[in-house]
Amino acid sequence: MAQQFAARPDQWPVAPRFSPRDRWYHRLAVEPDHEVWLLTWLPGQGTELHDHGGSAGAFLVHSGALVEDTVSIPAGSSPRIVGRELGEGAGRRFGTHHIHRIVNRSTRPAVSIHAYGPALTTMTKYRIGAGGLDVVTVEQAGVQW
To answer: What ranges do the domains of the chain cover?
Structure first.
C-alpha cells in the first residue's frame, strides 16, 4: 500500500510541505482497516522511540534518506538500538510489536509514505532507562495528532 501511494504523487490531495519546527504530516487515506500518511523530514528531524499501538505497518522513502533505529531486546539483556539507512525507494514492513524511531540524518529533506493496519488509535513513546525500556507517554489519535 505504501508503494502504491508513493508511486502516484500526482494523486496526493496535498503537496508535501516542510516545517522548520517539526516534521510535517498529512493523512492521505483512511478506511476501517487501514490508513496512509504522507510525512516530510528536514535534516535533523525525527521521532522519539515509539510503537504503533498494536497496528502493523510499512513505510517507504519517497525521496531523500531516513535512518530507522529499531529496538531489540535480547533475552536477559538490556535493550539495544540497531540502525539502518533507507534511501529513496527503500521501505520497511513491521509487525504489531515493533518499536523504532525514524530520523533524517542526511543533509537533504526527505519525504516518506506510512501505512498502518488497522488505523492508529494510540502510539506509545519510550526511552531506554537504567532498568530497560520505559514508557514516557501514550498518545491518542484525535488528541495528540
So the answer is: 1-8+40-119+131-140
